[in-house]
Amino acid sequence: MFLYIIPGFATEDPDSLSITRDYLKQGKFRSAYKTIRLYSLAHPDDFNTTWLFAYTSYFAKHYRESDMLYRKAMNEDPGNYYLRLDYARMLVNIGSYDRAKPLLQSYLSYDSLDGTALITRSRLDYYEANYNDAITRLNKIPESSDESGNAGVLKQEINLAKAPWISARLSYATDDQPLQGFFPEMTAGWFLHPLANVDLDIRVPVFQKGNNTFTGFWGEAGNKMFFAKPRIRLDAHLGILKFPKKRSITWTGDLSLRKTFLRNLELNILLERSPYFSTVSSIDSNIIENQLSLSAGWNDMNSWNGTVAAEVKNYPFDQNNVISIYGWVFAPPLKFAALELRFGLGYNYSTSQKNNFVAEKSLAEILTNYDPVLPISGIYNPYFTPNDQNIASVLFAAAIHPARIFDINISANLGVYSFAMVPYLYLDKDGSGNIYISRGFSRETYFPARVNASFVIKLASNLRLQADYEFSSTYYFIRHYVGLGLKANLIHGGKN
């Protein structure tokens, strides 16, 4: 939205309307809102005041009030095409596409080559994945229009979105279980239609366990479908997996549905069947993880945003379930030139139906050199099973844009108050005097942490190189992960 759309007022109060516009130009939206709101109380029926109040309310994030005021102004002057266009742009920005369309159509029938109207309608088409219609409208914008430069930027963004793409990635992970893994991956995709956005993913995980190397294969093909009217996105994938050690083959897949309500409210449902490779013992145990998750989130990246979610993971290996409930919230970003900072809070609770913590050695081996002072060593076999694990954490995220071709992102999740019922093993006797290995639990506090960093360099408009690092620390092990990937959009340079 642009300030020039608001006309000057012949008989305005220099201490109110003009000051409001000055605040808007300076980005002081709260001050602008307070000024115009107070002035509007004394001039509730003034058309220009109502229009400026509606415009200002949008930037102050009072979307409902802005919508109400625009409708009031429309009732006062229904033939004002500039007001229709301004209102339509506000509706597009808040995601009310169906209400914006007739206003834009009306304005374009009045002026079919207006750059502002055409780029606004093109953005609407872009958001609804109608890429070809968006490009057609952008090509109509005259080079003499003030929107010509913005049209070129949007056209490039749309061409990148609809172009075929291919990426190659190599990752390495190591932890002190100990377990190491290399993860070569090739992916490709192509947008054909809002209901046909296909992709292919091929991974060859390689694990190092002691002196042995195990190699698997995992390939998946999928499609993403976007339904503009109900604002629903449906993703589906189906694949084949060869486990690293026992060479058995199974299928994998996922089905996810994302529904967008209002402006930024989203509901997500996910069903997924995938392999589990997170513990040493899982590498040669052929573990499949079935997941059902439900989440709701508010994703306004310029204001408060957060998510609450619940998920159940089922393991057919032993018919066990792991249940998690979690949520997080970030405050509005703090922006300083090329730096953007965010701070937030998070919470995670997880527990399992059955605990899989067992002794590393057999009872006979333990009894051979048993020392009651030393704990009996144990591992999670074949997958991790939390027991009343609670993690309250502080969150941090930083985005740094030192130059147009560089992006640096850093995030941290630091557990400041975390505890769990941690299992331990000891020897006991049954009623007949037979010795067996028993399991107990003790409440332990700890300080989990996860830190992520990524560095992106745009080698060309359609070529991007990305390097990633992740450090994660849990109660049981510390893991380091590094990755390097190259993505190319196969876009041509001609006019579309």
Name its key features.
single chain, 496 residues, alpha+beta, Lipocalin, 2 domains, 16-stranded antiparallel β-barrel, 22 strands, 24% helix
Q: Please, could you describe this protein's structure?
A:
There is one protein chain. This protein has 496 residues and is an alpha+beta fold. It folds into two domains: 160 residues, Serine Threonine Protein Phosphatase 5, Tetratricopeptide repeat, CATH 1.25.40.10; 262 residues, Lipocalin, CATH 2.40.128. 24% of the residues lie in helices and 47% in strands. It contains ten helices and 22 strands. A 16-stranded antiparallel β-barrel has the order 1-2-3-6-7-8-9-10-11-12-14-17-18-20-21-22. Strand 2 and strand 3 form a beta hairpin. It is elongated and about 95 Å long. The relative contact order is 0.07.
| Count of structural domains | 2
How are the strands of the biggest sheet laid out side by side?
1-2-3-6-7-8-9-10-11-12-14-17-18-20-21-22
Q: What's the main sheet like?
A: 16 strands, antiparallel, barrel
Average per-residue pLDDT, rounded, comes to 92
The low-pLDDT segments are: 1-12
Proportion of residues in extended strands: over 45%
The structure class reads alpha+beta
Euclidean distance between termini CA atoms: 26 Å
Number of helices: 10
- Cα radius of gyration in angstroms: 29 Å
DSSP helix fraction: 10-25%
Per DSSP E runs of 2 or more residues, the count of β-strands stands at 22
At the first level of CATH, what is the class of the largest domain?
Mainly Beta
Which CATH-level-2 architecture of the largest domain?
A: Beta Barrel
Global morphology: elongated
CATH topology-level name of the largest domain:
Lipocalin
